[in-house]
Amino acid sequence: MRKKIVAGNWKMNKTLQEGVALATELKDILAAEKPNCEVIIGTPFIHLATVSELLKDSIIAVSAENCADKESGAYTGEVSAAMVKSTGAEYVILGHSERREYYNETPEILKEKVDLALANGLKVIFCIGESLEQREANQQEAVCKAELAGSVFHLTPEQWKNIVIAYEPIWAIGTGKTATAEQAEEIHAFIRKCVADVYGAQIADETSILYGGSCKASNAPELFGKPDIDGGLIGGASLKAPDFKGIIDAWK
Question: pTM of the predicted model, to two decimals?
């Protein structure tokens, strides 16, 4: 059985004190009412060590939102995969459309990041997805396949066990637009087929594929009800504990 996952991506939000307060609130809520899925929160680097320690014995896993494409050295301002791992974080989010767009992260750079993350014992939530222009030109499948081939399809089957895919239609991130459950399911099924073509049907069937893009408590049950959607990578709705809990409850 593949894992059901709800992962939060805080992005560049919350001071350290606000982040600790939110993590504490989530911990308390989920201790009182156990979730039916794995719960992960992706926090800015400055929160990682404190929040990882806070959540150490809880059911919530912690993720970084990025890591460097270099092992160590004179790269002022960068944070290596080894540093992320040393905080107690278990995951790292890589390939997010915002990183690709604003920081010019190419498939080659992301491949380096993926390799370093896995080498340092982190699991990777790897993001792929098309822009509105690409969707309107019906290129969504080609874009997703190319992003996978460019950065993760070189991995061994053993390494692949530590990869979670997040499909994010860029046109639906923070816009309030959501892919319909049918549109999302169609591309998730295609992604699973791409994985099967490389790694075989069994590994593809065990791969968790999350939907990201204006997912909220009101539409999560319909999205998560689709056979190839294994959860969500949640942006804005992960910044308030009740909103995030509403999405987690979609698995009940």
Answer: 0.97
